[in-house]
Design brief:
The chain is about 25% helix and about 40% strand. It is of the alpha+beta class. Strands 1-2-6-7-8-5-11-14-13-12-10-9 form a twelve-stranded antiparallel beta sheet. A two-stranded antiparallel ribbon has the order 3-4.
């Protein structure tokens, strides 16, 4: 229990967000995220990466407590996130409940809500525990064509509170494509010694969103991530990451962006998924 609490609260990413453990058991977890400007988009809206991270961390907390120290590595083999409403300048609470336990698998469900009970997001996750650090067969990302044009919006994305704290750098953002680099740095690490899954998922979310903006272009529009589905394909190592995103489909104001997050040096895929983003023009 103590080691799980430390993993949640003292990793570089978790402590940077300010996550507090209210309760952890082998069937439930309750995490509190006080409002911090550096966790926000403009207008003090909680960044979607924070809400997503709470679901992943809650799922990990239960799995790590349930399986114990016999399991040495964990990764979120699958997660589904639905964004229900925005949290504006306020604390949120993530409540995670165990759905089913297998020999190596832990299925859980998380609701993120304000103190007044307004639902912010709903997350289901499948966390896999391992008794060794096996990585399976690596998949190499197709990447992109290598252009480096951040477009009109790219230079400003890294200046927003949350993305600045995560040290995101938009290298390319035109023609429905986006490429964003996230260094491990001092902010994105996991207590286990690798890249924190929550930070990697924030990169996936932001890359998908920027691919949508690259299709629309700048303007006084309303926008937000509607849903996100992702798989972490193994325990993340202490290496810088790069996100590649491209729009796969569009229906009016809805955009489906396929995203791969890869090792920035080897281009081996670490996280893959789809971001559904909405831009109301």
């Amino acid at each position: 229990m103590t080691s799980t609490r430390q993993w949640v609260e003292t990793s570089a990413f978790g402590s940077g967000l300010g996550i507090q453990v209210d309760e952890i058991t082998d069937t439930s977890a309750r995490l509190v995220l006080p409002f911090r400007t550096e966790n926000s988009n403009p207008g003090d809206a909680l960044h979607g990466g924070c809400a997503a991270a709470l679901g992943l961390i809650g799922g990990h907390a239960i799995a790590r407590t349930m399986f114990g120290e016999e399991f040495t590595t964990f990764h979120t083999a699958n997660c589904q996130i639905s964004y229900l409403a925005a949290a504006i300048g306020e604390e949120v609470i993530a409540t995670t409940t165990l759905l089913r336990r297998g020999k190596e698998m832990c299925f859980s469900e998380t609701t993120v809500a304000t103190n007044e009970g307004k639902p912010i997001s709903h997350i289901t996750s499948l966390v896999r525990g391992r008794k060794n650090d096996g990585q399976g067969n690596p998949i190499v990302s197709h990447g992109d064509k290598g252009e480096s044009d951040p477009g009109e919006m790219g230079p400003f994305i890294g200046m927003m509170p949350f993305t600045k704290a995560r040290q995101l750098n938009v290298e390319h953002m035109v023609d429905s494509h986006a490429r964003i680099v996230m260094p491990l740095g001092d902010a994105n690490g996991d207590r286990d010694g690798g890249f924190h899954e929550g930070a990697a998922l924030a990169l996936l979310d932001t890359t998908g969103a920027m691919a949508a903006w690259a299709a629309v272009g700048p303007g006084n529009h309303k926008a937000s991530t509607v849903a996100l589905q992702a798989q972490v394909v193994g325990s993340l190592q202490a290496k810088d990451l790069i996100g590649y995103g491209q729009i796969a489909a569009q229906d009016g104001d809805l955009f489906w962006a396929d995203v791969e997050v890869a090792d920035a040096k080897t281009n081996q895929v670490q996280v893959r998924g789809t971001v559904i983003y909405r831009i109301v023009t």
